[in-house]
Design goal:
Elements: H1 3-23, H2 27-36, H3 45-48, E1 61-67, E2 70-72, E3 75-77, H4 79-86, E4 91-98, H5 115-129, E5 137-144, H6 155-165, E6 169-173, H7 182-185, H8 199-210, E7 214-217, H9 224-233, E8 239-241, H10 257-271, E9 277-281, H11 302-320, E10 325-327, H12 340-350, H13 356-370
Parallel strand pairs: 1-4, 4-5, 5-6, 6-7, 7-8, 8-9, 9-10
Antiparallel strand pairs: 2-3
Helix pairs in contact: 5-6, 9-10, 10-11, 11-12
Length: 377
């Protein structure tokens, strides 16, 4: 069997196995996984395909530090789907897999079920590490989930996750997105007010830091001040703010975006004073923001994306500096708004005024340092 046939065979197996595995899951787990990641509509691929543009700076090395893989009712995004995106023209040298309540074990203690997702991601990483699937080292870093409300009792879970992820496992994400109005518009029964200040939750984050793992936090912009308090309380723990802090645009927030930006930018400047916090530049095209593009008649160009996102990106870079900022795709969640190649073109437009060292940090260096990725860039 030649290399091409082997690649096709292995690719088909990679695509088919998770589909079979998901089909065998019980209805209860499927419901749990949908609850854990609410409000993410599937993209319209035919709409996205209507806009193409040349790739800017095609040789610039990029580590995409935030993407998911999943099989959900009516929406599959697995390795072949990701590779179609990462292979669309930009130089994506590696990625960091981010937990998405996907591929959990369907039996065993509840707190240990997320270990299945890390086992899955590590298997995908091993496949891509063979080189058979191209140059992109998918899931070179893996961020899993553990229930940090377990407090210090989370340590056995973290140990199991580290064992499952091997030398690729880098951290934990436990999302805390909560806002009184948003709870009715985008309900998530797994979050409640004040989680970041909860004694047990902080005990859990402290264990994460002690094990030299990072803590990724997804939330709404109204909660950024709580991250600053957490970072001050745990100064030796690397904390990664997802999606520039979750700029909420649901309900009444949609009609007061100037006020939202003012509150968000003030909070970002305060948070930037905590040196143990990094920020991901992306996630602005997803469904809970007022900055999304999926309601437009035509898909956006990179110039249009850059123009809309620039105030948020420049505020973050101005506060944190390029050494603590990293562009992220947040695919496939943000795919409702733009294609992968358009997004990274927009990032390159927004970074046009950066120095060569700043650009290297924004697209790869910061991600490599934050997630301890050695020998990639």
């Amino acid at each position: 069997m030649n290399r091409r046939k082997f690649s096709l065979l292995l690719g088909a197996a990679a695509a088919a196995w998770p589909r079979r595995a998901y089909a065998q899951q019980g209805a209860q787990q499927a419901a749990q996984q949908q609850q854990a990641a609410p409000g993410n509509p599937a993209p319209r691929l035919d709409w996205l395909a209507r806009h193409k543009e040349p790739i800017l700076e095609p040789g610039l090395p990029i580590i995409d530090p935030h993407h998911h893989l999943w099989q959900r009712p009516g929406w599959r995004y697995l390795l072949e789907d990701l590779l179609a995106d990462t292979g669309s023209g930009h130089n994506i040298v590696a990625t960091v897999y981010m937990e998405a309540s996907s591929m959990y074990r369907d039996r065993g203690p509840e707190e240990m079920r997320p270990v299945g997702e890390v086992e899955f991601a590590n298997g995908v990483a091993a496949m891509c590490g063979s080189g058979v699937f191209g140059k992109t080292r998918v899931a070179s870093g893996i961020v899993g989930h553990a229930d940090l409300m377990l407090g210090s009792r989370v340590e056995p879970v973290l140990t199991a996750l580290m064992r499952a992820g091997g030398d690729r496992f880098r951290g934990i994400r436990h999302g805390v997105s909560w806002e009184a109005e948003a709870t009715t518009l985008r309900p998530n029964p797994l979050t409640h007010a004040g989680m970041l200040a909860d004694k047990k939750f902080r005990e859990g984050v402290a264990v994460v830091g002690r094990l030299n793992l990072s803590y990724d936090v997804s939330l709404y912009h109204t909660q950024i001040g709580e991250v600053a308090d957490l970072a001050s309380a745990l100064p030796n723990t690397r904390i990664v703010l997802n999606h520039v802090g979750g700029v909420l645009g649901l309900g009444s927030y949609r009609s007061k975006q100037d006020e939202v930006f003012s509150r968000w930018s003030s909070s970002i400047k305060v948070l930037a004073a905590r040196p143990n916090v990094y920020v991901k530049l992306g996630g602005l095209g997803q469904s809970y923001t007022a900055l999304r593009f999926d309601g437009d008649a035509e898909p956006p160009s990179s110039e249009k994306v850059a123009a809309r996102f620039r105030p948020y990106i420049e505020t973050c870079i101005g506060g944190f500096g390029a050494a603590r900022c990293m562009f992220e795709s947040n695919f496939p969640v943000d795919k409702i708004s733009y294609s992968y190649h358009v997004f990274w073109n927009a990032c390159k437009l927004m970074a046009k005024g950066a120095s060569s060292s700043e650009k290297a940090d924004l697209f790869a260096g910061t991600a490599a340092r934050c997630y301890l990725l050695q020998g990639i860039v």
